[in-house]
Specification:
Distance between the termini: 31 Å
Strand order of the largest sheet: 1-2
Radius of gyration: 23 Å
Helix content: 40-55%
C-alpha cells in the first residue's frame, strides 16, 4: 500500500487536523513529563529483617496484609514482630520489596496512554479516510504505517522505557486485591481502572488495540507477513472466551480464599507478560507465558488477549457501551464476506450477522477499506 498517496489524498482540512494532533501530542507529553518525570519509580529505602511488617509496609505503599502476602506469610500473621522471628530471610525480603516497587505506577505513563489513545481515535474517526475520496481508492484508506508506528511507540516507550506499570491488566487485578486488603487506597485503584475502561468505551477497545504495550507487541508479531495460510484459520470465539471467563472466575475464587483457603492469591501474577518490560521474570511460568504468547502470535491474533487477559474480558463487555466503533450500514451491506475475511477474529462476522455478543473488536481498521459497497465506517453510535 502506498502510504504517501494517502497523505496526498487527504484534504487540507485533514492535514491541519493531523498537524494539530501532533502538536497536541507533544504538548501532552511535555506537560506529563514536567509533572511526573519517568525516573520517579525506584526507591532506595534500607529495609532489613530486624524490622516488622508494620514498619515496612507503609513505606512501600501497601497494607500490612499486602506485604505479608508478598512474603508468602498468612494474612493474619502478627505484623509487629521482627521479620527474622517470622522466618523471613534477607533474600526473601529483598525479592518482595523489588516486586512491590516494580508495580509502582509511573504517572507519566498515563499521559503516554492518553497520547496513543487520542492518536488512534482521531486516525480512525477523522484522518484515516481522505475527505471525499472515491470508493475506488479505498485501498489507500487507513494505511498500516501510522498504526505500526503507534504500536512500536507503545512497545518501546510505554513498555520497555517506562516499565510494566501501570497497565490495563494490573488495573483490574489491583481493584480486587484492594478488596481483600492488599492495598491501602482502594479508590485510587478503582480510579486507575476507570481510566482504562473509559478509554475502552470512548473508542471501541482502543486501549487494547492501540495502546496496551503487550497487546501492541502481539499485534506486531502477527503483522509479520509469514504463515498467511495458517492465519486465515481463526480461533473460535466461544472457545477462547470460555477459557478467559473460567480463568477469571478461578482468579476470584483464589483471591477471596474460597479455593486454597488463603486470601490474596493472584493467579495472574504467574501469567503476567508485562514483566517482560522490566526484564523481571519472577517465575518460570511468566517466561513460558511470554514465549508462548509471542510464538502463537505469529499464527493467531493476540492469543494472550483472547485466552487470558482479565481486562480483555471486561473491555469486551464494555464494548456494548462504546461510543465510537465500526458501524455497518445494513442497507449497503450485501454480505459478500470480504470484511469477514479481512478481520483477524470473528468480530465483523458477529456484527454482520447481528449476534448479541460478537467477538472482541480491537479497532485494528483491517475491515474499513475492503468493502466494495462502502458499508463499514468507524463512527459514533449516535450518527444516523
Amino acid at each position: 500500500m502506498n502510504n504517501s498517496s494517502w497523505f496526498s489524498q487527504i484534504s487540507f482540512k485533514q492535514k491541519i487536523w493531523l498537524f494539530s494532533i501532533l502538536a497536541g501530542i507533544l504538548v501532552i507529553m511535555a506537560f506529563g513529563l514536567f509533572l511526573s518525570p519517568p525516573g520517579e519509580l525506584k526507591e532506595t529505602a534500607n529495609f532489613n529483617i530486624g524490622m516488622s511488617i508494620q514498619n515496612i509496609a507503609p513505606k512501600l505503599g501497601v497494607t500490612s496484609k499486602g506485604l505479608a502476602r508478598e512474603l508468602n506469610l498468612p494474612l493474619n500473621i502478627s505484623k509487629n514482630k521482627p521479620l527474622n522471628s517470622l522466618g523471613v530471610t534477607g533474600e526473601e525480603l529483598h525479592h518482595a520489596v523489588e516486586h512491590i516497587l516494580s508495580h509502582r505506577d509511573s504517572k507519566f505513563k498515563y499521559y503516554i496512554y492518553v497520547v496513543l489513545a487520542l492518536w488512534g481515535f482521531l486516525f480512525l474517526v477523522r484522518l484515516g479516510r481522505p475527505d471525499g475520496s472515491d470508493i475506488k481508492n479505498r485501498r489507500n484508506w487507513y494505511p498500516r504505517t501510522p498504526y505500526i508506528i503507534s504500536l512500536l511507540f507503545s512497545v518501546i516507550v510505554a513498555g520497555f522505557l517506562l516499565g510494566k506499570s501501570p497497565n490495563p491488566m494490573e488495573a483490574i487485578v489491583k481493584v480486587f486485591k484492594s478488596m481483600v486488603g492488599l492495598y491501602p487506597d482502594p479508590m485510587a485503584k478503582v480510579a486507575a481502572f476507570a481510566f482504562f475502561i473509559i478509554l475502552a468505551i470512548i473508542g471501541n477497545k482502543i486501549i487494547c488495540g492501540w495502546v496496551c504495550p503487550f497487546g501492541a507487541l502481539q499485534e506486531l508479531v502477527y503483522s509479520i507477513p509469514i504463515l498467511r495460510k495458517i492465519k486465515k484459520r481463526k480461533l473460535l470465539f466461544v472457545f477462547t472466551n470460555t477459557i478467559r471467563i473460567c480463568l477469571f472466575i478461578v482468579m476470584l475464587l483464589f483471591m477471596f480464599g474460597i479455593i486454597g483457603g488463603r486470601r490474596g492469591f493472584v493467579i495472574y501474577h504467574y501469567l503476567n507478560p508485562f514483566n517482560l518490560f522490566n526484564l523481571d521474570f519472577e517465575t518460570f511460568s511468566i517466561v513460558l507465558t511470554v514465549i508462548i504468547a509471542l510464538l502463537v502470535s505469529s499464527i493467531a491474533y493476540r492469543p494472550f488477549c483472547q485466552f487470558i487477559c482479565p481486562f480483555g474480558l471486561i473491555s469486551w463487555i464494555a464494548e456494548r457501551f462504546s461510543i465510537f466503533r465500526v458501524q455497518i450500514d445494513k442497507e449497503k451491506c450485501v454480505q459478500c464476506g470480504i470484511c469477514i475475511k479481512a478481520c483477524p477474529l470473528e468480530a465483523v462476522e458477529g456484527r454482520v450477522n447481528r449476534k448479541r455478543l460478537p467477538a472482541d473488536c480491537f479497532s485494528c481498521a483491517r475491515c474499513l477499506n475492503v468493502c466494495p459497497n462502502d458499508a463499514l465506517k468507524y463512527t459514533t453510535i449516535f450518527k444516523k
